[in-house]
Specification:
The protein is an alpha+beta fold and about 200 residues long. It has helices at about 25-45, 50-80, 120-125, 145-160; strands at about 15-20, 80-85, 90-95, 100-105, 110-115, 125-130, 140-145, 190, 195-200. Strand 3 and strand 4 form a beta hairpin.
């Protein structure tokens, strides 16, 4: 589930890595139970005779097609879709055969918020809204497990610690405080007798 370490930059590490919440599988699982039950019932009531075997094969084929389209595909979509947050970027990956992905540097994210209704609170998930400075604007991540924890982790990275922004916690438009600035060192010059003297000693 976690992104490969080969895709991480130097000094980059994973903070959160998850799939969408398992509630995405509720529909496919219910469909599997219904199709299996209905298929078994229909296969059992097929009249005996020369058409019994072809009839049961046809019922099985229809059931397999329905499950492949409406149960297996959603399961594979869920399995191969991941959300990853590192100390530098937000990474999303989707797709089964054709993989699509998007990386958003944390330094481009302006705001992060979440929402979850009553059902989401019961199941422990929610929707994460991310405002970025890119061309696409808002990014919506639905059905994020433990969305409050993920929101807290992102907020800490963005606004609460030195890992959230480049330059050891100093924004590009900010200057370091006085006590962090490197003061110029006095110039040292050699005396004629070989000793070193400070050029500011006589000032």
């Amino acid at each position: 589930m976690a992104i490969s370490a080969k895709l991480l930059g130097e000094d980059e590490y994973v903070v959160v890595s998850t799939r969408t919440h398992w509630k995405a599988l509720i529909g496919p699982v219910l469909l599997l139970l219904v199709v299996a039950g209905a298929g078994g019932f229909l296969a059992a009531i097929v009249p005996a005779g020369s058409f019994q075997t072809p009839g049961r094969i046809a019922i099985l084929a229809v059931g397999v097609v329905i499950l492949a389209r409406f149960a297996l595909k959603p399961f594979l979509d869920w399995f191969f879709s991941t959300y990853t947050i590192t100390n530098r970027r937000l990474i999303t990956r989707h797709g089964i055969l054709t993989r699509t992905g998007r990386d958003i540097p944390l330094m481009r994210i302006n705001d992060v918020s979440y929402e979850h209704g009553l059902v989401d609170r019961i199941l422990g998930c929610g929707t994460l809204h991310i405002e970025s400075a890119g061309e696409r604007g808002q990014v919506v991540l639905p059905d994020v497990p433990h969305v409050e924890h993920v929101h807290l982790q992102m907020s800490d990275l963005l606004f609460g610690g030195p890992e959230g922004r480049p330059g050891d916690g100093i924004l590009e438009d900010e200057q370091p405080p006085d006590h962090m600035r490197r003061r110029p060192q006095p110039e040292e010059r050699p005396r004629e007798d070989g000793t070193i003297f400070n050029s500011n000693e006589d000032r």
